[in-house]
Each structure stands twice: as structure tokens, then as C-alpha cells.
Amino acid sequence: MKECIGMLLAGGEGKRLGLLTHHLAKPAVPFGGKYRIIDFTLSNCTNSSIFTVGVLTQYSPLELTKHIGNGQPWEMNRSDGGVTVLSPYTAKHGGDWYSGTADAIYQNIHFIEQYNPKYVLVMSGDHIYQMDYRKLLKQHKETKADATISVIEVPWDEASRFGILNTNDDLSIYEFEEKPENPKNNLASMGIYVFTWEVLKSYLIKDAKQKSSSHDFGKDIIPAMLNDDLKIYAYKFEGYWKDVGTIQSYWEANMDLLKENSELDLDNKNWRIYTNNSNFPPQFICDRAEVKNSIINDGCKILGGVIEQSVLFHNVEVHNDAIITQSIVHSGVKIGKNCVLDRVIVMENTTIPDGTHLVANPDEDPIVVKQEILEQKSIVIGGENR
């Protein structure tokens, strides 16, 4: 018996991320110079001593599965527990795609039951945050809750974009509103839940029989529990959390890393973010290059130019007189001479020809560019092909 196991929902298609998720699951999108988005949730599990985790994949899982491997970076390469990738094809004897977040857990009841847990932690693999799940579990046990939902205060003018939880003074939840037009408070669900397993199991089985259900935690399971007057509490999380579901929010989260005294501290030795190690040699920055407030990773060759407030992944090459500002450059990119990149996201293994100028309009999303687009001589800027 394991007291608590984790179930990590990682099947997101991430349509709003456009080219970044064209052939890639959202949790596998590169982030922060050397990580992938899912690294944050997996590392939270490791740092919270949760070493039995099922990762539920669906959309374009190949790169994600390859990245997770046997779980070694997160100390989950264990014979007892560890990390297990669960696809909908194997979950139901060749069955259907997951039809919702709750259905994904339902299809894997047999996986959970083999560990006979008292509690199940349900997480999403597409958020950037550093969270100690032990504190969430501790509150769940102290309140003798059936379910505990992690929440974070969001700006009032953004509250209508989220699932909002209305609570009593003791943080017991009496109502859940999905993207309300006139929210009563600004406590937004983070999509992180702790359930007492026997309670959740009964609701999953009941919900699976409801043909009219969307089989979703926020839309179906939580409202059903509230309707039955179960004990459901909110856990208030204080710290950095960002749903990087759009090009703009993805760019913002990367830029947040460069802020002085950033809440998102990737150098915190007490709460490390783990990932697969690179085998690239150390970075090389020549005397002619000027680098300001940027992240430059191993294998990079900065042969000239100016790099300011940007994030460069492994093995990036920058040539003379290039100017790169507020940009994100993925691994294997080569940037030619006299290039100008301002608020641009360059995808893996792209070669930017000499003299290319890409400048995003200040009131529009950053430009995303990849090799195929350059070869077609067509770059999407401000919704137009140029």
C-alpha cells in the first residue's frame, strides 16, 4: 500500500500554442533554456517525495514518452512504483481516446488499484510552478476532506477566464463556477486535486455510466460531489504559477526567468527542477559578442552580435552583428550575420539566413518561426503572411 500516488494528465494538444505544438504534446514543449514544461510537475513530485506517478498521454506522445524514459532524472526509475506512461490504447484493452480528464483516470483505475492508495493526487503536466504537494496533502488529511482543490488568487479582471471556487471562511467550497461572467471571488482552480481514493473511485464509476457527461473533473466530478454535500476544501497556493497555454503566456513565462528577484527560481538548490542532462560542451562567447541579462546554455557559440533579455537553449549559433532581444531560441538554431530578432520564438534546428529581420509588433503575440516556414519564404506576423 502506498499512501498517495500521482496521476499526471499530459495529453494536452495545446492548440493555442500554434506551431509549438504542431507535432508535439504541450507538456513536451521546451522551456527555460534546457527544460520541458512537464519537468516542473515531475520535479514537484520528486521534491514532495511522491515517487509513484502515472503519466497519462494522448496527443503526439512520442517525444514526451522519449523524454520521460525510465524516470531517472526524477529518481523514478524504481522497481516498486516509479513513473509509468499510460496511453489510452493500453488503458482499455485497445479502447478509446480519453474523453475527458475524469475519463482518463477512470480508464486507469486498474493501475491505481495495484498500489491500494489512500489518496490520489491529480495534476496537470502543462503548467509552470514549484509546489510542495506535501502541504496540500497535509491540509487534506487535517480537514478530513473528500477532495481538496489547489487554488491561486488571480487578478480580478482575469477571473472570468478560469474555473472559480466560491468558499466559506474555513475554505470549504460551496460552489464551482466555470469561467463566470461575474465572478464572486478570484480564487481560481489550478487543476491540482487530492482525492480520498475510495470516494473518487465511486464517482468515476458513476460518471462513466452517464452518457450526457463530459467526464471532466471541473464540469462533472466536482459539481457532483458538491451536490452530494461532500467535504471539499480549497488549498491556497502562494507562489509562481502560470498556465502557458498561449504564445503570449509562454513567452511571458520565459521572460519571467530573467527578472530580478523572480518568483520562479530555477537555481533553488532546495527545490531543483530536474531534466535530462545534455552532452554538449560548455558555451563559447567571443570577445566581440555582447550578452546582457540572458540565459545561454551549453553548446552555444556566440560568435558576435548583441543578445539581450533572451533565452537560448543548447547548441545555438549566433554570428556577427546579429541583434537578439526578448527572444526564445530553441536548440540547434543557427542565426546568421546581420539578423535582427525582437520578440521572436525560433523553433528547433532552424537556420535564420543572413540579414533576416523579424520584429513583432508590440501589441501582438511574439512571432514563432520554424524551418519549414522559412523555406516557404512565408512568416506569420500579426495574423498575416509576409
Using only C-alpha atoms, the radius of gyration works out to 22 Å
Q: How does the overall form come out from the CA principal axes?
A: elongated
Arrangement of strands in the largest sheet? 5-4-1-6-11-8-12
Q: In this structure, how is the largest beta sheet organized?
A: 7 strands, mixed
Q: Low-confidence runs (pLDDT<50, min 5 residues)? A: 380-386
What structural category arises from helix and sheet content?
alpha/beta
Query: In percent, how helical is the residue content?
Result: 10-25%
Number of strands: 30
**Mean pLDDT across residues:** 92
Report the sheet-strand fraction: 25-35%
Distance between the termini: 59 Å
In terms of quaternary structure, the protein is single chain
Number of helices: 10
